Request: fold
Amino acid sequence: MHADRTNRVMLALAGLILLAAGGAGMAASVGAFGAAFSRRTLLANQAGHYIGHHSSWLWYAVAGACLLIALACLRWILALLASTDRPGNITIPGDTNQGTTVLQPAALTDALTREIGAYRGIDAAKGRVIGDSRNPGIVLIVNPEPSADLHALHRRIEAEAIAHARQALGKPSLPIQLDLI
Reply:
């Protein structure tokens, strides 16, 4: 599972559990579960008595549940640290009799950002290659100067830099996201 999706699912699940616990506590305090229940102390309840009578095996079960939760958290952290949407080296299609051309994603983004950065009216340009190495995509973030003509810059970037990238990779339909901010 992708790290972003894992984050959203786990945080939503934790939020729902905490929301339910908080709502139950608030409902109990105003007497939603009966007036006698709202006046009881936290540890003077059936669950506390049950834990007291079954403590010989119950704490082992609690330790096992905590171990499962810790393993789930470790899986979550590993998904965050190891997951990336950046591809490996990109293979350029061509005649295999003459060898295989491999392009590093950083080389592609460096060339694109240098070309775009040289355009008049550009303050800075950043880029990264995302997706699978067989089907990469490019995200470009371009900071134009405040006085720049955004429409003309957009047209020039599309017609020149993006066209060069698509031609270099041999992928005329290469997905490229251009953000002028």
